[in-house]
Amino acid sequence: MRKLDQRFPSVALLLVALLISSKCINNVAGREAEDDDYEDEFDGRADNTEMNEKKQENSAPLATDDNGIEITYESPKYDIANFYFIDHFDDTEMSQKLWVKSQAKKDDIAEEIAKYDGVWNWEAPQRIVWKDDVGLVLKSKAKHAAIAARLTKPFTFTENKDLVVQYEVTMQEGQECGGAYIKLLSADPESEDLTMFNDKTPYTIMFGPDKCGNDIKMHFIFRHVNPINGSITEKHCRKPKERLEEPFKDKLPHLYRLVVRPDNSYEISVDHKVINTGSLLTDFTPPVNPPSTIDDPQDKKPDDWDEREKITDPTAKKPDDWDDDAPPQVPDANAVMPDGWLEDEPEMIPDPAATIPEDWDFEMDGEWEAPLVDNPICEKAPGCGTWKAPLISNPNYKGKWRAPLIKNPNYRGKWTPRKIANPDFFEDLNPYKMTPIASVGIELWSMSNNILFDNLIITDDVKVALDYATQTFDVKRKYIEKKSDSVLNQTKAFFKESPWAWFVIAMIIVLPLTYYCFIYNNKKDGCADAKKTDAIQPDDVSNADGGNGDKNPNSKKKKSDLEVKAADATETNAGNEFPDDESDSKDKDSTESFEMEEGSEDKDGEDSDADAKKIGAIQPNDIRNAGGDGDSSKKKKSDVEVKAAGFTETDVLDDDNDDKDKESTESFEMGQGHKGGEEDTTKPRKRRVRKDES
């Protein structure tokens, strides 16, 4: 019953949780079933717009905004004139015509991994928001993958306009090592054939997230052309202050935006939050403009150039009493060997219990020696073996003598080569004017698959990019955030539709608390108070009655099986030795009291008592004194009685050689019995005790 009382609150809470969750699951399952019905109904139709409108008209909203309006997705509407490139990937047929998969091979790499054979596919995300929202997915991992598409019109940096690049990435399986960046390919003859797109294809800008282990980057690299010699150098943006870990772990869509302005400033944002800003002139490594002067490579340091600020004093001498060889510690001269130190005993001795292994080969393994163990003789001694005085600090120790340092009179400072004009110096005050962009490509090697790219745009207006994000990314994230709270929303709706559930919850909380505070605690307190007294408790009475708990205090107590067997054994033994007392033994068993045979109170009886005391046998008076008034049903036997009983039983068992008397632990052997009907007062008398007395 107590276990049931303890489990009641948990069982009740579990039932309510199942009730609420089943309600929520039924709501969601009903919605999913409706979606499946709609898919079957419209299967085979080519007009996706008509299908979406039909769904929206007849289906219940899966998520609503703060105003209660259903959150739905439609392929974004846009003016193509505002974009240099745009692809939402929803129109799979058109998008597949736009993108070209690379068939190239990497140079200077093993043939089996040199080919760009990564798999690309157009599909909805694994965590479906809307099935019509399709993205470009890298399906393979640990393979080189490349795909590219031409811009609607090239982007040139000759006009004073911003470059805005924006796209979404969902790392559906997370990411441990790999990137999700894009490359804006330069307008160059080498990048004309997109089927040969590879890691060496000229690009103007590389932008996007990358990670390998704990190294997390947000790439922004642009290739700068030297205006003097035409050489190209990659310029790497400094890392943002914030560490971007969530996009690689949460498996949610994230929006990446790069803005490069004609004033050479740039801005990088993730999910509309700016994480890095700076200048193309000052915040890239190596810097865009080289230094105007450089070290003369022909200049060399003179041989007599002294760069030492301080030197050792040549006039200093070591003192005569300075001992370089003095140790830092010496034995304590005042220490004495402790008393009991066993110098003749080794600290370790061969293990006497060790034996030669059976596979020991004396020719191969050599002479066998037992392993050493601690000498047991040394355990109680202060120590064993050669005694050595403890070490103390050496008062004469000074260490190695060194001459003090003084200023170098010949010091001329640190030598540096002279500066000359940089023959490659140039000053590009407008690095914004980069190589024109003709295509956009994705060239990756990743250890994770199912990387989804979506809503990739290139424009020259930040407002256009923001407006496009409100139709795509913002709607998607708002929907996901609402759906992530779906269980909570369903629960709220359930309680709103079913006010009685609040009463059930209240009862489930109140009832266990009430039971615990007023009933269970009172029961525990009552038991604790009872244990503080010597008064007989109901459990004690039940135990005394053999577990039956007889309500009638005057009723006869039933004997246990052990008592009956012990009584029978005693009766048998007594019958053999006391044939005249057989009837008296029965009377003694029925009344379950101490029975002692009547003896003579004459001189012979006194002498027998004296003789019994001499041999150490316990007398009736001793038993009465140990037990008080002799009422064994109320008081337990003392330790003296228990020991005396064991002592007497042992003597009797040895004298009678009777195995049955060994099983009976409920009798004291007090005498040898009667002989010829006369009481032998020279020997201890026999006495039986009840089971419950022991």
TrEMBL record:
Keyword Endoplasmic reticulum tagged: yes
Pfam family, one: Calreticulin
Membrane topology classification: Single-pass type I membrane protein
Spans annotated as Disordered: 35-66, 280-330, 537-694
Residue stretches spanning the membrane: 500-518
InterPro entries in UniProt: Calret/calnex (IPR001580), Calret/calnex_CS (IPR018124), Calreticulin/calnexin_P_dom_sf (IPR009033), ConA-like_dom_sf (IPR013320)
Compartments, record wording: Endoplasmic reticulum membrane
Signal peptide range in chain numbering: 1-24
Any one of the GO BP annotations: ERAD pathway
Protein family per UniProt: Belongs to the calreticulin family.
PANTHER family: CALNEXIN 14D-RELATED (PTHR11073:SF1), CALRETICULIN AND CALNEXIN (PTHR11073)
Protein name in UniProt: Calnexin
Organism: Glossina austeni
